[in-house]
Specification:
Elements (H helix, E strand, L loop, with lengths): L5 H4 L18 E3 L3 H5 L3 E6 L9 H14 L4 E6 L2 H13 L2 E7 L4 H9 L3 E5 L6 H14 L5 E3 L8 H5 L3 H9 L6 E5 L4 H15 L8 E7 L6 H6 L24 H11 L3 E4 L1 H15 L5 H15 L8 E6 L7 H8 L9 H6 L2
Parallel strand pairs: 2-10, 3-4, 3-6, 4-5, 7-8, 7-10, 8-9
Antiparallel strand pairs: 1-2
The protein binds pyridoxal-5'-phosphate.
C-alpha cells in the first residue's frame, strides 16, 4: 500500500526535507456495536485520533513543514483553534523550526498544553475567532509577520495553505485502499471546511485517474451552533454564510468562511448533504464511542457519528450502505469534555474492609 504519496504532495521536495513523524496510515475499523444497534451493517470508523499528535491535522503539518524545510525557512506562523497548532508545533520541533501560534480563547487546556510542551510560542488572542473584525485583523497581522523570506504562514485551510492541505487528501487515498468494497458515504465534521474539501478532492483525484468509478457522498456535519456550511448545503444554497457561533465543541468554532463555498460545491457534486446536530448529540456520540466501541475521542471527533446516527434515524441511510465516520481528534485534547461525561459518576474511595463487607 502506498500511503504517503510524496511524489504527488511534494513534487519538488528533496528526500532530506521530507519530515515524517508517522502521520497517516490510520486504522479503518468496523463498528463493534453502535452500527448493529442503529441497523447499519457497514458502519466504519477511520481513527484519525491515532495520528502522532492525536488529530488528522498531522497530515497537513507533515507536508507544510516539509515544504518549509525544503525552502530553508526557520519560522512558522499560524493561527489555530488548537489541533493544527499542536500538530504544527510538533513538526516544527522535529524540524528545528520556530513556531508562533495565535490561538482562539476557547481552545481547551489539552490543546494549549500540547502546543506549549512542543516548545511553541503560544498567545491567546482576545476576540479572535469570535469577532469577525478582530479575526480579520489577526489574519492581517499574521500575514505581515510572515512576509520575511525565512518565515511561512501555515493555516489549515486551502484558501491559506493549499500545498499543506494536499496532505489531507491522503485520507481519501487510504480509505479507497482500505475498504474492501466501495464506500457510499463519508461523514465528517466541518468548521472552516478544509478537511471535507480535502476528502472530496482526494476522491475526485481517484475518480479522475480511473482508480475509482465514483466518489462516496461527502456528508458534512456541523453543530447547529456553527451552521456555516451544513444548513446552506442542505437547503440548496451555493455559498456558505458567516455566523456568530454558539457551539461549545472545540475545533468546530470558526467565525470565518475559509473553504466553505468550495466545500458546498464539492460536497454537492459528490451527492452528499449537510447535517446539523446539537452539542448534546455530539457529547452523547462521544460517550457511546468510548463505552460501546472503545474509541476515546474529543467531541469534534464524535461529530461525524452524531450526524450519521441522525441521518439513519431519519431514514436517510440504506441499512446496507457502507458508511465511514471520521474520528478526527483524540480525547486527551479536551479534558473538560471527559469531566462532563463522568460528572455523575465520581470515583468512590473505600477502605479494603468496606469492600470485603460490601463488594
Ligand atoms: C478535531 C477536528 N475535527 C474537525 C475539524 C474541522 O476541520 P475544518 O476546519 O478543516 O473544517 C477540526 C478543526 O480544527 C478539528 O480540530
Amino acid at each position: 500500500m502506498t500511503l504517503w504519496r510524496w511524489s504527488e504532495m511534494l513534487p519538488a521536495t528533496p528526500l532530506h526535507a521530507r519530515l515524517d513523524l508517522g502521520a497517516g496510515n490510520t486504522p479503518l475499523v468496523h463498528s463493534a456495536r453502535i452500527g448493529r444497534a442503529a441497523g447499519l451493517e457497514n458502519l466504519f470508523f477511520k481513527l484519525e485520533n491515532t495520528n502522532p499528535t492525536g488529530s488528522y491535522k498531522d497530515r497537513f503539518a507533515a507536508v507544510a513543514i516539509s515544504q518549509m524545510l525544503a525552502h530553508c525557512q526557520t519560522r512558522c506562523v499560524t493561527s489555530s483553534s488548537g489541533n493544527a497548532g499542536a500538530s504544527l508545533a510538533a513538526h516544527c520541533a522535529a524540524a528545528g523550526i520556530e513556531c508562533e501560534i495565535g490561538v482562539i480563547v476557547t481552545a481547551p487546556s489539552g490543546k494549549l498544553d500540547q502546543m506549549r510542551a512542543y516548545g511553541a510560542n503560544v498567545t491567546r488572542v482576545e476576540g479572535f475567532g469570535i469577532d469577525d473584525e478582530i479575526t480579520r485583523q489577526v489574519f492581517r497581522f499574521l500575514t505581515r509577520r510572515a512576509e520575511q523570506p525565512d518565515t511561512a504562514l501555515q493555516i489549515s485551510a486551502f484558501c491559506w495553505s493549499p500545498l499543506g492541505m494536499a496532505g489531507v487528501k491522503t485520507l481519501s487515498y487510504e480509505l479507497a485502499e482500505q475498504s474492501s468494497s466501495p464506500i457510499d458515504h463519508v461523514f465528517s465534521p466541518v468548521s472552516g471546511g478544509g478537511l471535507n474539501l480535502a476528502v472530496a478532492r482526494g476522491f475526485q483525484d481517484l475518480v479522475g485517474d480511473g482508480r475509482l468509478s465514483s466518489s462516496p457522498r461527502i456528508d458534512c456535519v456541523q453543530p447547529a451552533g456553527n451552521d456555516t456550511v451544513a444548513g446552506p448545503l442542505r437547503a440548496g444554497a451555493e455559498r456558505a454564510r458567516p455566523v456568530a457561533w454558539t457551539t461549545q465543541i472545540s475545533g468546530l468554532q470558526c467565525a470565518s468562511i475559509l473553504d466553505g463555498h468550495e466545500l458546498i460545491s464539492a460536497a454537492r457534486a459528490s451527492g452528499g448533504t449537510g447535517h446539523l446536530v446539537s452539542d448534546e448529540q455530539i457529547w452523547e456520540a462521544q460517550a457511546r464511542l468510548a463505552r460501546e466501541e472503545g474509541i476515546f475521542c474529543e467531541p469534534a471527533g464524535a461529530t461525524a457519528l452524531a450526524g450519521a446516527l441522525q441521518a439513519c434515524e431519519q431514514g436517510d441511510l440504506e441499512p446496507r450502505a457502507r458508511v465511514v465516520c471520521l474520528v478526527t481528534g483524540a480525547a486527551f485534547k479536551d479534558p473538560p469534555s471527559i469531566e462532563r461525561m463522568l460528572a455523575d459518576d465520581p470515583v468512590a474511595t473505600r477502605t479494603l474492609s468496606e469492600m470485603i463487607a460490601d463488594p
